[in-house]
Automatic annotation (TrEMBL):
Residues 4-272 form the Carbohydrate kinase PfkB domain. InterPro entries: PfkB_Carbo_kinase (IPR050306), PfkB_dom (IPR011611), Ribokinase-like (IPR029056). Gene3D superfamilies: 3.40.1190.20. It comes from the Archaea. Residues 276-301 are annotated as: Disordered. It holds the Pfam family PfkB. PANTHER family: CARBOHYDRATE KINASE PFKB DOMAIN-CONTAINING PROTEIN (PTHR43085:SF57), HEXOKINASE FAMILY MEMBER (PTHR43085). The keyword Oxidoreductase does not apply. This is 2-dehydro-3-deoxygluconokinase. The lineage of its organism: Archaea, Methanobacteriati, Methanobacteriota, Stenosarchaea group, Halobacteria.
Length: 336
């Protein structure tokens, strides 16, 4: 069984030289990004057995994406498009305030838009502890939305815990369309990641963070709602329990990868706890003392702490695609 399977698009990111603008840089540093891809890389670095599903052009650029993921220990299940198909591209200029970050995207008609779930290894989803997808993926095209529905259905059939990161961006779709589509998916979702801003603008929830999280969980029958704060902290409602973690204080070079690192670390900790609980149950099967509690994976609060630590580490690194070490995350958590 896999720990974590993610579904989403890869983007070739070309970053201008540090201290230069897109209009005058002499060279670009090339990398690969994408919200699910980034979360899987973070989770893999923390020990999770992760698999990424997508559609890529059968070209050197598609091969680069696969090689990049494998270099980070992430397995791939790819539907290959023709060699002349496009890979989404983004040109990035990252500067300190007040200049900030500028991104010029070139993603229309990319290979991923034409994906069909039947061309992906659906058995991987049904044989995973967790399945993860983000809102930007659903918004890409009718085919990506339909594929997401099919993959969530396969996860539900396989008793896989499903996670959805709303991750709303106005350029992807208007709030009303986002709300209609996301709420249609929620019956198949167990864990929702969402910011307070998106909870209000897209889902219409207002109030203090605990009220928002409780309202979302009960209204949509979710197992867990993780309300992400812009500073790197978070609050989670899991059943009737409320957990909260503050942001880890430290210097910030670039916050672009913080959210995905948080999500990946949360998943990594939850799958690690699930594996430990399963091992305890197996060792005590028929003899000795049973594991404490009802056998469900413990530690939503611990998973939040891992997420906050990973987000803080990501802020010390450049770019949205970052890897963090388990030793560093555990050290930060122990010091808090």
């Amino acid at each position: 069984m896999f720990d974590l399977v993610g579904f989403g698009e890869a983007t070739l990111r070309l970053r201008a030289e540090r201290g230069r603008q897109l209009g005058d840089t002499d060279s670009f540093a090339a990398g690969v990004g994408g919200p699910e891809r980034n979360a899987l890389v973070a989770a893999s670095g923390l020990g999770a057995d992760a698999v990424w599903l997508s559609r890529l052009p059968d070209s050197p650029l598609g091969d680069r994406v696969v090689a990049d993921l494998r270099r980070h220990g992430v397995r791939t299940g790819v539907s290959w498009a023709d060699a002349d198909a496009r890979l989404a591209t983004a040109f990035v200029e990252a500067g300190p305030e007040p200049r900030g970050r500028t991104i010029v995207r070139d993603a229309d008609d990319a290979a991923f838009e034409g994906i069909h779930a039947e061309n992906l290894p659906l058995n991987a989803v049904g044989n995973a502890e967790r399945f993860h997808v983000a809102g930007a993926t659903v918004a890409r095209s009718e085919q990506t939305a339909a594929a997401t529905e099919s993959l969530l259905a396969a996860a539900v059939e396989g008793d896989t815990t499903t996670a959805f990161d709303l991750r709303y961006r106005e350029r992807d779709w208007p709030p009303a369309a986002a709300r209609e589509t996301c709420e249609s998916l929620f019956p198949a979702v167990d864990v929702l990641f969402v910011s307070s801003t998106a909870a209000e603008s897209v889902l219409g929830e207002e109030g203090d963070p605990i009220e928002i999280a409780h309202a979302l969980r009960t209204k949509h029958d979710l197992e867990t709602v993780v309300l992400l704060r812009t500073d790197g902290g978070a609050l989670a409602v899991h059943g009737d329990e409320v957990h909260e973690t503050d942001a880890v204080r430290g210097e910030s070079i670039d916050g672009a990868g913080a959210r995905d690192a948080f999500v990946g670390a949360f998943h990594a900790k939850r799958t690690a706890d699930a594996a430990a609980t399963g091992a305890d149950a197996h060792r005590n099967d028929g003899a000795g003392e049973p594991p404490a509690g009802d056998g469900s994976p413990p530690g939503v609060g611990d998973a939040l702490a891992w997420g906050a630590a990973a987000a803080a580490l990501a802020r010390t690194l450049t770019g949205e695609s970052v890897t963090v070490s388990r030793a560093a995350v555990e050290r930060i958590v122990a010091e808090q």
